[in-house]
From TrEMBL:
This is Activator of Hsp90 ATPase homologue 1/2-like C-terminal domain-containing protein. It comes from the Bacteria. Residues 24-156 form the Activator of Hsp90 ATPase homologue 1/2-like C-terminal domain. Gene3D superfamilies: 3.30.530.20. It comes from Mesorhizobium australicum (strain HAMBI 3006 / LMG 24608 / WSM2073). InterPro entries: ASHA1/2-like_C (IPR013538), START-like_dom_sf (IPR023393). Belongs to the AHA1 family. It holds the Pfam family AHSA1.
Length: 163
């Protein structure tokens, strides 16, 4: 049975909290987040698509991503893994490699928490470090809601296809 979309995202202007319930175990969700598989689900035709993803999945390891906008512009970002507890937690720095209109190249910090629940995994994202840039935090809160919906749809569709 497909889950109803259960995604929430909010911000106080400094930190974003977003969460979703996904009908799959934490190991499956973790793999979709950190592997090359992320290129399959992260994005949509009307926003942007992930076109390149690489990650050295260890504390101190770097990660990089390039997304291509619907208009064809390539936008890089990257950072460093600060904490990894497979398959429960990832903490990483995040900075755009281009001049984001509301955030610039400010480095922020993203923490992912994957908690087992009765019918799958609760994914919670805490994204902080916006330094009072409320417009940037609001935009990113909307984006995290989209990202979690894409992740949920991808993982649950794969689970149903495998059943």
């Amino acid at each position: 049975m497909m889950h109803a979309l259960r995604v929430r995202s909010m911000t106080n202007g400094e930190t974003i909290m977003a969460s979703a319930e996904i009908g799959a175990p934490p190991e499956r969700v973790f793999g979709a987040l950190v592997g090359k598989e992320a290129e399959q689900w992260w994005g949509s035709a009307d926003t942007y698509r992930m076109v390149d993803w690489s990650a050295d999945l260890r504390v101190g390891g770097r990660w990089t991503v390039v997304v291509r906008t619907a208009g064809g512009r390539d936008l890089p970002a990257g950072g460093e893994f600060l904490e990894i507890e497979t398959p429960r937690r990832i903490v990483q720095t995040w900075a755009h490699g281009w001049d984001h209109p509301t955030l610039g190249r400010r480095q922020t910090r993203v923490a992912w928490l994957l908690e087992p629940i009765a019918d799958g995994t609760r994914v919670t994202i805490c994204h902080g470090g916006f330094g009072g840039r409320q417009e940037a935090a609001a935009e990113h809160a909307e984006d995290w809601a989209r990202v979690l919906a894409w992740l949920q749809a991808h993982v649950e569709a794969g689970r149903l296809a495998a059943a």
